[in-house]
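Input record (one chain):
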Amino acid sequence: MAGNFERRRALRSILLASTILSIASIGAKAEEAKLDTITVQGSSYETEGTGSYTSDLVSVGEKEVLTAREIPQSTHVITREKLEDGGYTSLDTTLRETPGVVVLSNDDGRSSLFSRGFEYDVLYFNGLPAPLSSIYGTQPDMAIVDHVEILRGPSGLFGGSGEPTGAINMRLKQAKDTFGGSASITGGSYDNYRGDVDVTSPLTENGRIRGRVVAAYQTQDSWVDSVDNEVGVGYGTVQADLTEDTTFTFSLSHMERDISPFNGLPTLADGTLLDVDVSTTTGTGWNNFENNVTDYIAELEHKFADGGHIKASTRYSDRDVDFLYGYAASAADTNGDVSGMSYLGRTFDESSFAADAHVSKPFELFGQVHNVIAGVDYRKVESDMQQGRGTIGGTFNLYNWNTSVAEPDVSYTTDTTSDPSQVGIYSQLRVNPVDRLTLIGGGRLSWYESSTTNNNTGAVTDRIDIDNEFTPYAGVTYDITDYATVYGSYTTIFQPQSDTDVSGNIIDPREGQQYEGGVKSQFFGNALNVTAAYFWIEDTNRAVSDPDNTGSSLAQGKVRVRGVDLEVSGNPLPNWSVMAGYTYTESENLDDGEVFSTYTPEHMVQLWSKYSFDSSSGMLDGLSLGGGMRAFSDFYSVSRGTTIEAPGYVVFDTFASYKINDSFKLAINIDNILDEKYYERVGGTSVFNFYGKPRTFKLRLTTTF
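The corresponding structure, as predicted from the sequence alone:
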């Protein structure tokens, strides 16, 4: 205990020292004249129009835009080109083919997202956090996104509390100072129809004020009977250059989903997966899910001549969800009979607010240029949830499911309000003692509060009050050549828990910490990124039952996740784009020696490649051909002592597009071209067992102007 105390005290000293240095650097105006303006040659943070499957610049897990080699953790960028070639529309459909990510299937927009054995519980929009819970369907539509950035491993320095899985940041589309736009229509299997419109324009003659509007609407049925998914999204952003170095941006987005949901298939009582038609449903005619999500983002940024900046930004979101759906209440017998149907009804209203203000400044010392960041952030979420559930009696058969069962009169027996909030101060110091070597140190102090109120009784439970929670960060990068960097890092995060000890006190938060080392390389003029990483995560202080006191908990559980990430992305040749990744993951609950993340396959391979013919190819000019592959090894779930095993699978997709002229392009995607039948998710003996998508196609016509 004494050793931990001394370590934390030393790390707090580092945080204080780096904060003082940041304040000092801001005041050192005389030093600014000595520093050169920092630029990155040949790179653009926005990926739209680059035609590339990679980007050298990322900001996820950071407070500024850096090259990937400057960040001592695994990162991945899904560019606008990749989003369009894949025909992705929701975040979960995008991440299915992303290295290192596991998507536990549900309705589009409602899937659970995992990486390195843990589930994402926060999404970032332009660097600002938003709560994520798969059941509420708040994942964004890709129409409004320039690119998606993924950081793997704990991101507590700038994020505070959360899971040790990492961070996903959506870089929203930005307004441009020249007029342009696009429109597209899509049609495909299972009555899949979609329209997109995207227009950007200067709003003043000099382009110092500019705007952009995006709208999309999609309706589609499913290969599962009685299931459909409808989504509409609108997005607008205005950007104004208040001075040559100061920019204000305001963005507004609104999304609505209307879904007839499906809660998955049952298994046999012993956990054996069923071999039924992929169209088999367990739903009803009154299954319904509706939500509305509105986000407001305001950002004010000033850039200094020396490459530093100061930025203040806020995000406010309103979300309301209303759903009721039925599903199998039991395992199936060998004849396909299920005993009863369960139903779940819920209303959910949530408002969330996030704010961040920080400064990043380079400074010169001992002939080398260093950098310091200091800032403060705040976030608060208020949510109200009403829930009712029950069972409809009778026997239902999977081979002739009765979807016309009478809709129940739902009684909301659960009515709760929760209000978590968090304040944090953070600082990061980057020191370059010699050329090619960068030492990175940082820390964060967080204050976290939350409580849950039972609105039926007025009782307040799960009251959590955490003061001065310290989150350290350390990293090192060394450029062994002009195109290769080796790195190492120690990153941390904490996650509050509501379990109590024998005295009724809330137990300590979980603490996630990761050690990662690897190499990041660039080839062909930075057109191709190649990375390799080894990671080791330990998640400690997990709540476990107190063996001496029934109903009480101890913060003594421990989980370990370790593995390897290998990735290649970019353009090995001018007309050839590739994205490929292999992930090995091994997870263990150190309390009992069992596998911790049973959903995560040990081996995952994701691959996508495209070749575009040019004028030198004669009649093939304007044609692009490509395809992808996903290969997962076996995985399983354990539900109430019953193990449900899913065999590994390999799925192939293909893609082709033809540029008709300078204004029109036609593209076709065929997913699961071999029509492989496989389970993409397994859960319990009555629910959450989902077949993967069968062979489907979609044809898209796009015009640009």
